[in-house]
Amino acid sequence: MHRFDKSSLPHHLAVIMDGNGRWAKQQMLKRIVGHQKGVETVRLIVEECSKLEIAYLTLFAFSAENWLRPKTEVKALMALLKKFVRSELGRMMSNNIRFNVIGNRTELPADINAEISAAIAKTETNTGMLLTLALSYGGRQEIAGAARKIACDVAAGNIKPEEIDEKTFNNYLYTAAMPEPDFLIRTSGEMRISNFLLWQLAYTELYFSDVNWPDFDKKELYKAFHHYQSRERRFGKTSDQLQTGMPTA
Ligand code: IPE
Ligand code: IPE
Ligand code: MG
Description:
Blueprint: E1 12-16, H1 20-26, H2 31-51, E2 56-63, H3 71-94, E3 98-102, H4 110-123, E4 130-137, H5 139-155, H6 166-171, E5 183-186, E6 205-208, H7 218-228, H8 239-244
Helix pairs in contact: 1-2, 2-3, 3-4
This protein binds 3-methylbut-3-enyl trihydrogen diphosphate (IPE) (2 copies) and magnesium ion.
């Protein structure tokens, strides 16, 4: 098992859970079986992150572009999602987890939205990890939506154009109440962002694992954290400045 320091884990961990389909294909199974197995990994990783007291865990579960997949797969994914939210509620309560969803919820089927709203309301006063599922989520859509809302507020006279800066812009995003991710894990060997948290990932440490999501486990998570802890997050400064506390400018 890879060793890591429990006191310097990412405050906010984001994950692009990829490779369910390829995992299934490799074993001559239907893609949906890969998604089912992927749900078990979600359970395991949520449990482990909550135990490790990670404050924010954000999982990319369904992208705005995933609606373009074959209808049968989309339908099966929605059914799995509904089952997941319902079956996890008890575990979220016993683990003190707060549930949250980002993305264009108006595109989700009404019954799933009802399950989501119920889970958000039920877990609202929990004080442990904030578990966020990104559903029907696209980073560009989120940024365009924020620009639209800002334009409306300017037109209504609520804010002045000169007041728009990074901080105000951030307040119009789904993630307004969250810190930016410190660490992003993408599984399955793909090295791209696929329209996930484009604004928020500006200074996030990226990590790509070759393991498909259904095979991602505690050992792989620990390995990722071990890597995270070897990174130097400079945020534009020099290494010397960080190590000696040299002043800026
Ligand atoms: C990730 O696995 C799950 C979703 C995107 C919903 P994929 O379904 O993308 O699996 P691959 O990439 O085809 O292997
Ligand atoms: C990204 O995976 C979205 C999720 C993991 C939910 P995709 O499998 O949809 O991404 P691409 O199409 O390979 O970039
Ligand atoms: Mg994929």
